[in-house]
Amino acid sequence: MSKQIKSPVKKWLGTVTLHDPLSLPQVVAVQNALESAKALAEDGDLEKLGLAEFHNELLPAIEDCIEIWELKGLDNPPNPFPGTPRKSAAELMNWLSTEVVALFNEAEAVPNE
Asked: How far is the CA of 55 from the CAs of 28, 38, 46, 63, 111, in angstroms?
């Protein structure tokens, strides 16, 4: 099963298909990436750190959760992941990370019995 999401980023319109549900290794990768990115933000001023470095910390886990890329102007998968134009690249990463973290949070919401 998969979840197809539509890009709101004008530079790269199209769809991305996420693995849904996430596998255990994907959940662990996202959890580790979030903890690592959080540690980066706590260790220094996020403004000085830069959004690109923060996103770069999350990128491998986010990419691992994506099954199919169908975004105009990008390869499937994008290699390398775009860093410019910076505004569009940040919008793309914000959108993808929000969607993947939502799936991750669904996985975390399962009660322990």
From this structure: 17, 11, 12, 12, 30
Q: Which residue has the tokens 């004008």?
A: 10
Joined tokens for residue 53? 């470095």
pLDDT at 39: 85
Q: Smallest Cα–Cα separation from 28: which of 1, 76, 60?
A: 60
Burial status of residue 8 (CB atoms within 10 A of its CB: 0-12, 13-18, 19 or more)? exposed
Residues 6+ apart with CB under 8 A from 48: none
Low-confidence ranges of the chain (pLDDT < 70): 44-49, 107-113
Of all residues in the chain, the percent with pLDDT exceeding 70 is 88
Work out the end-to-end distance of the chain between its first and last CA atoms, rounded to an integer number of angstroms: 25
CA 110 – CA 98 distance, rounded (Å): 19
Which two tokens mark 68?
A: 């199919």
What DSSP element (H or E) covers 47?
Answer: helix 46-49
